[in-house]
Amino acid sequence: MGELLPEGLVQGERARLFPVLSTTSKEGRTTSILLACLDKVDEFAVALMGDARVRVGKRSDVSTFTEIVFKGDKAATKERPDGLIVIQNGTKVWRALVEAKVGTNELNAEQIERYRLLAKEHAVDCVITISNQFATEPASHPLDEVRRSRSKIPVFHWSWMHILTTADLLINNAAVADRDQVVLLNELRRFLTHESAGVRGFDRMPPEWTSLNKLVASGGAISAKSTEAAEVVRAWHQETRDLSLILSRLTETPIQERLPRKHKGEPAQRHKDELVYLREHLCLRVELDIPDAAAPLEICADIRRRSIEVGMALRAPEDKKTTRARLNWLLRQIRTENVADLFIRLQWPGRSEPTQFSLAQLREDIALAEQEKDHLQVLGFFVFFSRSLGGRFAQQVNFISELEQLVPQFYAEVGSGLSTWKRSAPKIKADKHEADDVSVESMARDAEEMTSEE
Predict the structure, then answer these.
(1) pLDDT by residue (tens digit) across 369-403?
(2) Residue 184: in which H helix or E strand, if any?
(3) Could you tell me how far CA 205 lies from the centroid of its own chain?
(4) Rounded to an integer, what distance in angstroms lies between the CA atom of residue 296 and that of residue 257?
(5) Where residue 3 falls among pLDDT bands split at 50, 70, 90?
(6) Phi, psi of 231 (to 5 degrees)
(7) pLDDT at residue 147 is higher than 60
(8) DSSP tag of 153
(9) In 3-state terms, what secondary structure has residue 315?
(10) pLDDT tens per residue across span 77-107
(11) pLDDT tens figures, 114-126
(12) Residue 261, Cβ neighbours under 10 Å: how many?
C-alpha cells in the first residue's frame, strides 16, 4: 500500500512513531504512536486486533492512519476520527475507525454514533474506542448508550491499561520474535507509563459509594430503582477489570474475570443481576480466572461489615478418611507466616453448617476443626483473607487502594501455593500382572469359582 492513501480517503497521514503535532495535541500524539506500533509490531497487532475479531496472519498487511478525511466529507469538519486501521488479507480489506481519549477525558456516546454513521456510509467494518474507562470484554462497551444503540456497526473498546498490559505481557513472555520490534514495543510501554501520557488505572469509587455506605450503616434498604446502587455496580465492574489487569502484569499471565455464560457479551444483564445481588446481600463480588491456579480467586466487598474477603475454594482430598488428615493436607500448603486476617471455612455434608477458624487457631490446635463434627468428614475448604476496613471502607480512594493491596497479597502469600486434589491414577491389581491374567479363559475361571462359592 506504501504511502498511498486507502481508497475512499482524500486526506490522512500514516501513523508516525514521532508525530509532528502541537504539544497541546496529547490525544493525537498518543494515538499516532500507538497506531504506528500496531503497524510495526506483528505480535502486538495479532493480540489487539484479535479483540476486534479480526485475524492478522503472517501475510496480512496492517496500515494505520491519522487525521483522516473521507471523500465527500468536509476537511474542516469538527468531528473527525482520530485514526484508521486497515488490514488487508489477500483481496479482503478490513477497516476500523479509531476514537481515543486520554487522561480524564471520557468517551461521548453521541460522537461514537456519528462515527458509526460515518463507518456505515464508507463501508468501514467497525469503530474502536480507547480511553481510561474499562470494559470487561472489548465487545462490551463501557457506555450503556453505545451498547443499546440499534446501529449494526460494532464498537470495540480498549482501555489504555489493557493496551499497556498487552504490551507488557508480550515483552515479559518473550513473545515478540523480531528484536527491533521488541525495542519498539518497549518504547511504547515506556511512553505509556510516563505520567505525561495520561494513562491511569481505576483509582476511586464514585461519590455514590459513600452515600450508599451511609444508607446501609443507618439500617436503610437499597431500593430497586436506586441510581446510587447502579453507579456503584458500574464502578465495581471498572475496578474488577482493572484488578484482572493488575494481576496479569504481576504474574505475567493473562487473567480474566470469570463470568457465567449468560453474562458473557451481555453487560446489561450482568449489571441487572449484580444490582439485585447487591440489594439482597449488600455485597459486591467477582471471581478472577488465573491459569493453572487451584481455583478461581473469589473477591467480596461486604458493605454491612465494611470488610473485604479474598479467597479460594478447594475440594477436600477424598483419599484421606478423617477430617484431621484432610485439613493437614491443606495446612501443609499454606506456608505464610503472616497469619493475621487469614481464615479457613470448612464445608460439611448435608445440612451441617460450615465452621470457621483462623489459621493461627488451627495451627495451634487442629482438633478444633472436629469439635461437634467428629462423626462427619469435611468436604471442602475456603481459604481467605478477611480484613475489616472500618471507616476507610466507605472512602472513595482508600477502598480501592486497600482492595488492590489485599488481592495481590493473598494470591502471592497463599493462593499461588495452593494445589487442587486429584485422584491417583488407577494401578494394576496385585493378582493381575499380564494380559493372560485377564484373558477370556481367566475371566471364565473366575466366574466358575464365584458360582461354586455361591
Answers:
(1) 999 888 899 999 999 999 999 999 999 999 999 99
(2) helix 179-193
(3) 18
(4) 9
(5) low
(6) -65, -35
(7) yes
(8) S
(9) strand
(10) 556 899 999 999 988 999 999 999 999 999 9
(11) 999 999 999 999 9
(12) 7
Q: Which residues of 424-452 are buried (b: 16+ CB within 10 A; e: fewer)?
A: eeeeeeeeeeeeeeeeeeeeeeeeeeeee
In this prediction, residues 236-251 reach a mean pLDDT of: 97
* Max Cα distance, the chain (Å): 100
Q: What grid cell was written down for 118?
A: 460515518
H or E element at residue 239: helix 227-251
Q: Residue 374: CA atoms inside 13 Å, Cβ hemisphere, count?
A: 5
Q: Are 142 and 107 contacting, i.e. CB atoms less than 8 angstroms apart?
A: yes
- Cell numbers for 342, please give them: 487469614
* φ and ψ of 246, to 5 deg: -60, -50
The DSSP secondary structure of 155-183, one letter per residue, reads EEEEEHHHHHHHHHHHHHTT----HHHHH
Whole-number Å distance between alpha carbons of 249 and 401:
17
d(CA 36, CA 22): 18
Q: Report the C-alpha gap between 439 and 418 in whole angstroms.
A: 43
Q: Are strands 355-358 and 297-302 parallel, antiparallel or unpaired?
A: unpaired
Pairing of strands 256-257, 283-289: antiparallel
CA 101-102-104 angle, 5° bins: 100
Integer angstrom CA distances of residue 288 from 243, 257, 294, 301, 402: 9, 4, 12, 14, 18
pLDDT tens-digit readout, 66-81: 988 888 776 445 568 9
Among residues 162, 171, 7, the alpha carbon closest in space to that of 95 is found at 7
Instruction: Give me the pLDDT at residue 1, please.
Output: 41
Identity at 96, one-letter amino acid code: A
Could you give the 3-state DSSP secondary structure of residue 216?
A: helix
For helices 179-193 and 42-51, the axis angle rounded to 10 degrees is 60
Assigned C-alpha cell, 300: 467480596
